[in-house]
Amino acid sequence: MTETAIGLSELSHAFDTMLGGIPPKTLEGFAEKRNLLCQGGYRSGGNPALLRALVGNALRGGLMTYDASLAAFLREHVSAVRMLTMLSREVLADRRCQWMGLFGKACFILALLCDAREDVRTEAMAWAASSGAELPDSETAQAALSRLFGPAFKSGEAVASSRDREKIGQLTEEVQSLKSELKTARREQSAAARKEAADLKAELATAKYNVDERNRTIVQLESRLAKEEETREAKARLAAAAAQVRLFRGWLEPAIRAEAALAEPGPADLRERVEAALDAQLKADRAASGSARLRERLEGLTALAIRVDETLRTALVPQRSLKLARSELEAEIRRLETALGKKEQSPAATLLETRIHAALREEEYEALGEAIALLERLALVTADEAKALRRLRVRRMSVWDEAPFETDKSADPDTASAAILRRNPELVSALRGESALFLFLDGHNMLNGLGRYKLRRGDAKTHEDARKMLERDIRVLVAPFPMVYAHLVWDGPTMSSYSISENVEGHYSGGEGEHRADRFILDQIRYYGSRESVAMVLVTDDMGFAGEARRLGAKSCRLHDFGAFLNGPAR
Predict the structure, then answer these.
(1) What is the residue extent of each domain of the chain?
(2) 441-460: b or e for each residue (b if 16 or more CB lie within 10 Å)?
(3) 28-70 per-position pLDDT tens digit
(4) In 10 A of CB 79, how many CB atoms?
(5) DSSP code string of 61-112
(6) pLDDT (tens digit, 9 = 90+) per residue, 514-527?
(7) Can you say whether residue 45 is alpha, beta or left, with left for phi > 0 and alpha for psi between -120 and 50 degrees?
(8) How far are the Cα atoms of 3, 11, 242, 344 from residue 130, in angstroms, in the given order?
(9) Phi, psi (degrees; rounded to nearest 5) at 525
(10) CATH 3.40.50 fits 414-566, yes or no
């Protein structure tokens, strides 16, 4: 455009003139659609001159290449552009000098550049470059337009024929009618909008009421819940107080009964009568020498059975011969009790006693425990019989393995050790350095079940000394085998761990109640069993605990078997 006959200053002035008649709100809407706001330092509602300059710069930059949206904006909001784009190409070409004289050359060229017709825009560029166009003065331009458009245009005044006036009147009436219809439509739209707003307001009020009702319901429920909690806490406090009262009364009950008994004097000759009865009984026993000898033999066999049970419980490798001797002792004791006239057992108790003696596996002992409880509830065995059966079951479980020992009286002394090795293949393989192993040790069960650690009366050894001895023996046993990792677990109020050696770790189980170490070990077995393919062995004499560990994939080793490894068997 620098070589055209129209200078840039003239075009800029023409642009400013066109934009000056457009309201600022319209310009702001156009600028917002074109993302022109917040540019050039302008904000919404700012200086109109700055806004016109901002929009003018955008229009100037896009008009020479014909931006359809920019041209449409000018055609819609600038009357000169709208009027010139309505004329035919021939009228524009023949009367261009008059149009230039009327609107000015710059405004005329810019209006034609906004035309949607490409040939018009092309000629407008040529006319803009031409400098020889002779422009008439304003009066000459008006006269030419008057001749072109007839009597409707003359020296700026409206001159029309009666026919034109009628047409204008009709058009005016139509415009008024359209305006009336527009007003009516606007009133209807306003009424509809007000009705819709009222409906929305009513719905909003209803929704708010529902929300308030729900909130009130929530508050009421929370209040009821708080009252229920207070009532429950009060009941719990009353129950705890009643329990404390009962406990305290239980502590005082023996003293109360003793004071009551002392307050009542007994018969004066009671002691003499009892001593006389004892003398008579001794004489009767001496007279019945056979019964006295049976009773004396029964007492001796009972004491001997107690010694055998204690020996079997603390033995490292219980011998089958001693177990068989214990069974014979039990049978002889029952025979002597029957001979002395003791009360016969119920058939159900006799059957259960026989089954307990015949049991060989842990599962059988567990089932027998449930059977004892069931028969006691059904009153098929008395409470004393059930108590005796439970003692017998526990005693048999403590001296009987899942499988009998494979030794006899004539066997070689090494046969027992060989049987231990066969019963514990995973432990043997790991202690030969052939495979990896996780070794879990029930600490307190080992202290109470192995003779070398058990505390006895008159022994200077303390519980802490026994625990240190067990830790040392475990460390010495597994130190040569780095693929063996041992976990020694103790009951303790706080969960913690400590290192005994590189492959031996001690743990305190934490928690409350019984079997805390058992739960800790089972959790460890469950964890390693789900992530590792390494063998796991649990060392314990707790048969129920060992059964749970086996169900999780671990093997079990009895204390007397593991004691043989601590003594250094051949591996």
Answers:
(1) 8-152, 160-258, 293-399, 414-566
(2) bbbebbbbbbeebeeeeeee
(3) 777 767 666 655 556 666 677 777 777 777 666 655 567 777 7
(4) 10
(5) HHHTT--HHHHHHHHHH-HHHHHHTTS-HHHHHHTHHHHHHHH-HHHHHHHH
(6) 778 898 999 999 88
(7) left
(8) 10, 15, 116, 141
(9) -65, -45
(10) yes
Is the torsion defined by CA of 243, 244, 248, 251 positive or negative? positive
Residue 298: half-sphere exposure toward Cβ, Cα within 13 Å:
16
Indicate the residue type of 469.
Answer: M
Q: What is the pTM of this model?
A: 0.33
* DSSP output for 431-487: HTTSS-EEEEEEHHHHHHHSTTT---TT----HHHHHHHHHHHHHHHHTT-TTEEEE
Q: What percent helix, strand, coil does the chain show, rounded to 5? A: 70, 5, 25
Structural element, H or E, at residue 230:
helix 162-263
Q: What is the pLDDT of residues 396-421, one digit of tens each?
A: 665 544 433 333 334 444 566 677 88
Contact present, 146 and 155 (Cβ < 8 Å): yes
> Are 561 and 424 contacting, i.e. CB atoms less than 8 angstroms apart?
yes
What token pair was written down for 80?
Answer: 């000169």
Nearest CA to 388 out of 334, 431, 436, 433 is that of 334
